[in-house]
Specification:
6-stranded parallel β-sheet, 7-stranded mixed β-sheet, Quinone Oxidoreductase, Chain A, domain 1, 11 helices
């Protein structure tokens, strides 16, 4: 089978590899669609300590069951599935608390084991969810980032409240649509990329470039501020601006992993009782909620995503990291 293998910073190689075999309780999935994630771009640039080359990345994917091991139950060859790439142990204290997303022994397909930038991938049967046979595989591949957005929104956004979102990439635009499904009253999206901002506008958000944000947000939100901000970028500049713009007593949910260290106005945080939440991945229930939103037609993939072939992956990664990609999301279709 063909696979896209990460060999080091800015080095992706198309290779022939053996089709994986299914271990006990595993499925072999014929990949139909796999999205390029922002975290994988960081890995491609050599900024991710947990992505160790040589590695087949790819964790946002859907496909068809090609083979089921004897111990795998519930799915058979030919079933269309979406795969949850987060594998939790189910036994540690975090799992016992209902927080498998921060399992002490978690593994992620495409990071700790071969991922879906390949024609076939082996996955635990328990992590595969059946979807209607007629469902668009490209839309189905959005389940994983959509679950991230659901988790972040549920941490701090109150239905019928107001929301400011930093970033009009995949997570930002999906967070916008999650908030709309939760009954958001007023929502604004900010980004440095004018084209991506237009996608947010087409999806129904008010938009602002970062230098316009203090003035426009003050006028848009009443009585002059916003109680909840979700930062899907994660740079020092977005984190500090979020701290300055949120209302006293408000919440800042940090999803983006753009940079590790940031200097924040901590005295301001204390005096204004600002609450900061880290938001990482999702629970199994939230992954199922994402699938529900997708299968019931409540999430739009257009106009902000585009489809490319698997063998175009090296060029796509290059374009995305150089800021030359027109779309917020590139999905590789096999």
């Amino acid at each position: 089978m063909k696979a896209i293998v990460y060999h080091g910073p800015k080095t992706l190689v198309i290779e022939e590899r053996p089709v994986p075999t299914a271990a006990a309780d595993e499925l072999i999935i014929k990949v139909q669609a796999v999205g390029i994630c922002g975290s994988e771009l960081e890995g491609y640039l050599g900024h991710s300590s947990i992505r160790v080359p040589p590695l087949v990345m790819g964790h946002e994917f859907s496909g068809v069951v090609a083979e089921a091991a004897q111990g795998a139950k519930g799915l058979t060859a030919g079933s269309n599935v979406i795969v949850n790439p987060l594998i939790s142990c189910g036994m540690c204290d975090r799992c016992a608390l209902g927080k498998p997303n921060i399992c002490r022994n978690r593994e992620i397909i495409g990071i700790h084991r071969p991922g879906a930038f390949a024609e076939y991938v082996a996955v635990p049967a328990a992590n595969a969810f059946p979807v209607p046979q007629q469902m668009d595989a490209n839309l189905a591949s959005l389940a994983e980032p959509l679950a991230i957005s659901i988790h972040a929104a549920k941490l701090g956004f109150q239905p019928f409240g107001d929301l400011l979102i930093f970033g009009a990439g995949t997570i930002g635009l999906l967070t916008l649509q999650v908030a709309q499904n939760m009954g958001v009253r007023k929502v604004m999206v900010t980004d440095i990329n004018p084209a991506r901002l237009q996608y947010a506008k087409q999806l129904g958000a008010e938009i602002a470039e970062p230098d316009q944000l203090p003035d426009l947000a003050g006028k848009f939100f009443s009585p002059g501020g916003v109680d909840t901000i979700i930062d899907c970028v994660g740079l020092a500049a977005t984190r500090e601006q979020a701290m300055r713009l949120v209302n006293p007593g408000g919440k800042v949910i940090m999803v983006g992993l753009g940079s590790d260290l940031s200097a924040l106005p901590m005295n301001h945080l204390v005096r204004q009782e600002i609450m900061i939440y880290g938001s990482y991945t999702y629970t199994r229930a939230e992954f199922e909620q994402a699938i529900h939103l997708l299968t019931t037609g409540r999430i739009q993939r257009n106009p902000w995503s585009t489809i490319r072939g698997l063998l175009e992956a090296p060029d796509c990664f290059k374009a995305l990291t150089e800021g030359k990609a027109e779309y917020s999301k590139i999905i590789l279709s096999l």
